[in-house]
Design goal:
146 residues, mainly alpha, 2 domains
């Protein structure tokens, strides 16, 4: 069942995101609007489009959420693999999504401090004519403490 829903949600996300489906939706709304005089702009006429759009929106929320969850999980796995593959990377960052809000705030503060130190070091080097011309790789190695 899960595999069927995954394939269905993926196919719907691709289809619904196409320009053809967008043009079809515009065509349906135009057709609905043009039938207004035929139905004397009745409550039932308005209810048809309101109900239709509500049902479609309700179902699309689940399809979009499924697709976004899958994409986010795949992206996270790719980032985890990059962290594992880069020499000197802190592999403790692999499971960031499992940290509490307080732990994330602490880590964010740590990176902010590192960024400020790196910026100060770069400004000092530029003012003294020193290592401002370092390669990006060397700056990264200095930053990582390698």
């Amino acid at each position: 069942m899960n595999d069927f829903f995954r394939r269905f949600a993926h196919a719907c996300a691709i289809g619904v995101g196409s320009s053809r489906v967008f043009l079809l939706a515009i065509g349906v709304i135009i057709a609905w609007a043009l039938t207004g005089p035929l139905f004397h702009f009745s409550d039932t006429w308005q209810l048809v489009v309101n109900t239709g759009t509500s049902v479609i929106t309700f179902l699309m929320v689940f399809l979009i959420q499924n697709t976004q969850n899958r994409d986010a999980r795949a992206m996270q796995l790719k980032l985890d693999e990059l962290l594992r593959a880069v020499h000197g990377a802190r592999t403790r960052l692999v499971d960031l999504e499992d940290l509490s809000d307080e732990e994330l705030a602490h880590l964010q503060l740590e990176f902010q401090t590192l960024r400020e130190r790196l910026q100060q070091r770069t400004e000092r080097a530029r003012s003294t004519g020193g290592a401002a011309d370092q390669t990006p790789k060397r700056r990264l190695e200095d930053h990582m403490g390698v």
